[in-house]
Amino acid sequence: MSLWGNFALGFTYLSPLVGVYSLFAVALTTGGPPSIWWIVIVACGQLLVSLVFGEVVSQYPIHGGVYPWARRLWGRRYAWMAAWVYIWAMVVTITAVAEFGTGFFASLFNIELTPAITLLIALGFLLVALGINFTGTAWLARIARLGLFAELIGVIGVGLYLLIFQRKNDFGVFFDSMGVQGDGSYVPAFFAAAIAGLFLFYGFEACGDVAEEVSNPARRIPRAMQLTIFVGGVSALFSFAGYVLAAPNLQEIVNGEVEDPIPAILESTLGAVGAKIFLVVALLAFISCVLSLQAAASRLIFSFARDGMLPGHRWLSKVSPKSKVPNNALIVACTIPALFCLLIFLNENLLVPITSFAILGIYVAFQMVVLAALRQRFKGWRPAGPFSLGKLGFVINIVALAYGIFAFVILATPGSSGSFFEDYVVHIGLGVVVIVGLIYLFIARPDAKSSAPEGDAIRVATEIRERTGQLEVSRR
């Protein structure tokens, strides 16, 4: 992959179009128009995380992302748990994106969206993405670039059009809760709407998941991750703001009286034909997002299995001699989300809580890497890759960890539906994943079967500097 192919992969995984469209109605009914500010807050926090990741991947440009980073920064068992949580969060994210995309497919073809139809469309997304991924990295990069093009049209292009030509509400609406808090304080409502931003800003780490398939990865992947955050944040702001300001019935949307507001806004502003064209663009973005998610998840599973750290690791670590991709890992990255889709078919109220679990799991895995990096800094590690934050690295690392803890608190806040399972499904899901992971780790001892390097950040940094003959590669 080139820099742009790698950026396209991360961007279509992050997918501002998918993020905004999936949770636009949830954000407005929960926090009102001011929920847009979560896009800014989370973008700033995740940019700090991406800077920390950039230093790590620049020193270790190898497949798998979170798993090898945590392993080289801390150790085998620590990395095993980080990757275990991350894998489950990723496959649930694939499920959520496939499920959220069904509404746009149904709107495009005027299909009544019953639970059975939703299941069939979601499974269709998963299988189409699997078929494309089987063809190899070249086609993955091509479709990712096509998805990037669709995203930019669908997010920035339409967002600007709505802002300039179809504005029906004033900009002051972004400081108006429109009554979502009822008679109480607005603060709880605003924090409850954080999911709108938190669901949006991950995916940049996928740039590092495919490191061994990128040309000059130590330099290009950090740049691709930062570009993903910058372009994704600007795109999401244009999109979210455009729909809010162009909504002819904003109060009804905030009140929860409009089940699927974005197609209605598009039809009222672009007309029936324009709305259909745009739905095609949106579907391209959703398919591309599922494709990128599958690719990233399969590379993590492959990397994990290559070190003998998973049941069936010999089968999972096989690479197709023709396409040069881990086909068996791809099959797993498609099958498990398909099973989750079946679970949602049986209880459709689980979609939002399951999405929340995916976000929390991703953030747990991310912050395990951030914490491991900070631990190494305290021990004297100075990243030796071409990308380095220099003296600012320590401060950025600490603030990135503080942001992660802040996100944990928000994501772990129980729901208020009155159903114990639905309100605590995030905690239950994370607890089950962690407990099962710990049981397997201490009984099967997969870490004992692996001889791959671990905890060598300081030694490798020293070797890099000795090999290059310079004290600080990052300052050349």
Automatic annotation (TrEMBL):
<feature type="transmembrane region" description="Helical">
    <location>
        <begin position="146"/>
        <end position="165"/>
    </location>
</feature>
<feature type="transmembrane region" description="Helical">
    <location>
        <begin position="224"/>
        <end position="246"/>
    </location>
</feature>
<feature type="transmembrane region" description="Helical">
    <location>
        <begin position="424"/>
        <end position="443"/>
    </location>
</feature>
<dbReference type="InterPro" id="IPR002293">
    <property type="entry name" value="AA/rel_permease1"/>
</dbReference>
<protein>
    <submittedName>
        <fullName>Amino acid permease</fullName>
    </submittedName>
</protein>
<feature type="transmembrane region" description="Helical">
    <location>
        <begin position="185"/>
        <end position="204"/>
    </location>
</feature>
<keyword id="KW-0813">Transport</keyword>
<feature type="transmembrane region" description="Helical">
    <location>
        <begin position="325"/>
        <end position="346"/>
    </location>
</feature>
<feature type="transmembrane region" description="Helical">
    <location>
        <begin position="36"/>
        <end position="57"/>
    </location>
</feature>
<keyword id="KW-0472">Membrane</keyword>
<keyword id="KW-0812">Transmembrane</keyword>
<feature type="transmembrane region" description="Helical">
    <location>
        <begin position="7"/>
        <end position="30"/>
    </location>
</feature>
<feature type="transmembrane region" description="Helical">
    <location>
        <begin position="394"/>
        <end position="412"/>
    </location>
</feature>
<feature type="transmembrane region" description="Helical">
    <location>
        <begin position="352"/>
        <end position="374"/>
    </location>
</feature>
<dbReference type="Pfam" id="PF13520">
    <property type="entry name" value="AA_permease_2"/>
</dbReference>
<feature type="transmembrane region" description="Helical">
    <location>
        <begin position="113"/>
        <end position="134"/>
    </location>
</feature>
<keyword id="KW-1133">Transmembrane helix</keyword>
<dbReference type="GO" id="GO:0022857">
    <property type="term" value="F:transmembrane transporter activity"/>
</dbReference>
<feature type="transmembrane region" description="Helical">
    <location>
        <begin position="277"/>
        <end position="304"/>
    </location>
</feature>
<dbReference type="GO" id="GO:0016020">
    <property type="term" value="C:membrane"/>
</dbReference>
<feature type="transmembrane region" description="Helical">
    <location>
        <begin position="78"/>
        <end position="101"/>
    </location>
</feature>
